[in-house]
Amino acid sequence: MGNRIHSLQADDFTGYPIVLSSDHSYIHKGLGFSLVGNSGSVAAAGTFVISFVTPSGKYVHLRPTSIASTKTLGLFTIAEGSTMTGGTEATPVNRNRNSLNASLVTAKTGATISAEGSVKLVELFIGSGGNQNTRSGGQNGENDEIVLKPGTAYSLKFSNIGENDSTVFYFSLFWYEEQEG
């Protein structure tokens, strides 16, 4: 994650140059987005899928910043090139609340995978907050940035790998969109 020095901007108090991380800079430009929500109840051995399709001509830098499970262990995977059907359109939120820019990503929650992509980009185990035998909190993947291919479908799958109980997965995804190379 690089930093950018804004040479024309100085802190009012110290007079030092303002330094912003790349993420912070994209948020200020109105190009940083979030998708925050939960799966609803997922039965033992069940799954919850987010269909995430990147726009043509843009590099999407995705980071699964926070993932948690309420009751049982889970597995979070991102697969490239998945084929999915159904789901409910999800509207990403611009992280700069003063910007009118809309994300060009098409996201649907509750999708069904008909063919999972063969390239797994992420596989994170999710601890649970509700079971004392597996209580380990959630996952924080903010250092797991992936630059996704333009015009490609990705499945973001939450799998309940607990043996008996249903669970609810909570997620907070962050990404920014930049012009292709």
Tell me about this structure.
There is one protein chain. This protein has 181 residues and is mainly beta. Helix content is 4%, strand content 54%. The chain contains 1 helix and 15 strands; from the N terminus they run E-E-H-E-E-E-E-E-E-E-E-E-E-E-E-E. The strands form 4 sheets. A 6-stranded antiparallel β-sheet has the order 8-10-4-14-6-12, with no helix packed on it. Strand 1 and strand 2 form a beta hairpin. The model is unreliable at 134-139 (pLDDT under 50).
Summarize the structure.
It contains 1 helix and 15 strands; from the N terminus they run ββαβββββββββββββ.
What are its keywords?
181 residues, mainly beta, 4% helix, 54% strand
Kindly report the spatial arrangement of strands forming the biggest sheet: 8-10-4-14-6-12
Let me know the average pLDDT. 87
User: How far apart are the termini?
Assistant: 17 Å
Low-pLDDT parts are: 134-139
Share of residues in strands: over 45%
Number of strands: 15
The secondary structure category is mainly beta
Give the number of helices.
1
Radius of gyration: 18 Å
Give a topology summary.
Blueprint: E1 3-10, E2 17-21, H1 22-28, E3 32-42, E4 47-53, E5 58-69, E6 74-80, E7 83-85, E8 88-90, E9 93-94, E10 106-109, E11 112-115, E12 119-126, E13 146-148, E14 153-160, E15 167-179
Antiparallel strand pairs: 1-2, 3-9, 3-15, 4-10, 4-14, 5-13, 5-15, 6-12, 6-14, 7-11, 8-10
